[in-house]
Amino acid sequence: MKKVIDVNTGEVGLGMEGTMLRSVAIGSCIVVAAYDSENSIGAMAHIMLPGTAPKKTLEKTRYAADAIDEMINMMTQAESKKSDIEVCLVGGGNVLKRKDDAICKDNIESTTRILKEKNIPVRASALGGTRRKSVFLDIENGSISFAEGDEKEKTLWKAGQRQLN
């Protein structure tokens, strides 16, 4: 039986073979699910806010730049090479259906820009919409799946595929 690690808002989690990383109830947040197929190492960052944390902030990994840096650091400390890391993005939804809600768009733009600057390829994404999402990274088989609302889980990407969606 796989060990399940829940990655909640503002957290970054790391797992190896025999582990599933899971993040649920994703609204305007963005979850970056990262996988290194060479070493079977996975990580997840559950990003709440765009940009970089203010200097005095204690919970820095709530912010895109800090969470992505922490995720990459955790993976490289576990023997990943940055060049072997591939990611999928899930979230960024306007679940409260507010017309003037910009946080979803800001989170998507900030996260995708930072990953591009760091040369981390985004292989697939399930972004936007108005329903909550969940995401699952099965490290043993290198698959990332997601669910929207109460729908059934579906595969977003599997290691070895350039792009699925």
Could you characterize what this model shows?
It is built from two helices and ten strands. The protein has about 160 residues and is α+β, with helices and mostly antiparallel strands. It has one domain: 60s Ribosomal Protein L30, Chain: A. The strands form two sheets. The protein has a five-stranded mixed beta sheet with strand order 1-3-8-9-10, with no helix packed on it. It has a five-stranded mixed beta sheet with strand order 2-5-4-6-7, with helices on one face. A hairpin with a 5-residue loop joins strand 9 (about 145-150) and strand 10 (about 155-160). The longest helix is centred in the middle third of the chain and has 15 residues, at about 105-115. About 40% of the residues are buried.
Short description:
The chain is α+β, with helices and mostly antiparallel strands and 165 residues long. Helices cover 18% and strands 36% of the residues.
Keywords:
165 residues, 60s Ribosomal Protein L30, Chain: A, five-stranded mixed β-sheet, 2 helices
SSE inventory with pairings:
Elements: E1 3-6, E2 12-15, E3 19-26, E4 30-36, E5 41-47, H1 64-77, E6 85-91, H2 103-117, E7 122-127, E8 133-138, E9 143-148, E10 154-158
Parallel strand pairs: 1-3, 6-7
Antiparallel strand pairs: 2-5, 3-8, 4-5, 4-6, 8-9, 9-10
Q: Shape from CA axes? A: globular
Q: What is the string of helix and strand elements?
A: EEEEEHEHEEEE
CATH class: Alpha Beta
Q: Quick one: how many beta strands?
A: 10
